[in-house]
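Quick one, tokens below:
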């Protein structure tokens, strides 16, 4: 099969399209014929070697954890699925080796759910990592009816889902973003504010009593204004800054595969309750260029490789 691979850690120039053996199928594994693969910044951070202390990588490796496709083979103990089922998955395995930017992928059954009718494969592939990250952050923070939530990085891949999911739970959402993304955030249901110096004052202008929840999907200095904005008993959750836990007593999280949560996200996207922003698609042969575009850091919405 054809796949995007890298044989040593480093930059985008390490990528090449190669022929690889078909993935091995275990007893609780599906072999999925990939139709679309969603790209995430963590993919190239792994390739650059930044996460070697956290994740084991077996070289040569294929990047990608987000996948949408069709079941080609089923393992010995996978009664949930049959050959021909359309599926999507956040298919993160214990060892980074055989990813989704390929013609076929081995998918742990615990990570997969059926793709609903009405949800296109490209949109399905754009959901898993970012959608699950947002949903798990919201659940860990107990966002609900009447909550006032401040989301840092609200126009990004995770933030866009976070805004919508918080609004679906009845929360008021204030989102930080550059001014060019403010109309987009309004469309999603958030009240936009510009990030940077003076953020606390700008938030207080529209939420004088502060906020119940801070969701940090941006990192950097985002949490610097937290003491000025968080109400007593409020919750801070971050995917990028350990201070959320060490300084504010909240949650510092790493997204986990969860098939039932992914099914919920897919259902919401299929019925139109959750907007999935696909910025651009690339064919497999141009997958290295797709990652180069992602690494520029200026894309709103997900980049998807189609196979």
């Amino acid at each position: 099969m054809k796949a995007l691979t890298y044989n040593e850690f480093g930059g985008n120039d390490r990528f090449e399209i190669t022929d690889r053996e078909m993935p091995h199928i275990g007893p609780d594994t599906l072999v999925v014929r990939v139709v679309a693969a969603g790209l995430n910044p963590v993919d190239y951070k792994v390739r650059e070697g930044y996460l070697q202390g956290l994740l084991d990588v077996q070289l040569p490796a294929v990047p990608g954890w987000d996948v949408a496709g069709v079941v080609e083979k089923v393992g010995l103990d996978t009664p949930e699925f049959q050959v021909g089922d359309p599926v999507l998955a956040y298919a993160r395995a214990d060892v980074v080796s055989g990813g989704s930017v390929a013609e076929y992928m081995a998918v742990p059954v615990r990570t997969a759910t059926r793709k609903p009718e009405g949800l296109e494969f490209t949109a399905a592939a754009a959901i898993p990592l970012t959608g699950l990250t947002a949903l798990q952050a919201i659940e860990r923070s107990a966002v609900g009816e009447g909550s006032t939530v401040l989301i840092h990085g609200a126009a990004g891949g995770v933030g866009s889902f976070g805004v919508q999911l918080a609004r679906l739970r009845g929360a008021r959402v204030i989102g930080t973003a550059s001014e060019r993304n403010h109309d987009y955030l309004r469309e999603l249901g958030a009240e936009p504010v510009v990030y940077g110096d003076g953020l606390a004052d700008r938030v207080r202008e529209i939420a004088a009593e502060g906020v119940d929840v801070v969701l940090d999907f941006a990192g950097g200095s985002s949490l610097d204004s937290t003491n000025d904005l968080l109400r007593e008993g409020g919750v801070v959750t971050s995917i990028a800054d350990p201070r959320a836990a060490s300084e504010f007593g909240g949650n510092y999280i790493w997204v986990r595969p969860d098939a039932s949560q992914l099914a919920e996200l897919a259902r919401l996207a299929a019925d139109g309750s959750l907007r999935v922003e696909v910025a651009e698609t690339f064919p497999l042969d141009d997958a290295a260029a797709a990652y180069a575009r992602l690494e520029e850091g200026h894309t709103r919405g997900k980049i998807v490789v189609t196979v």
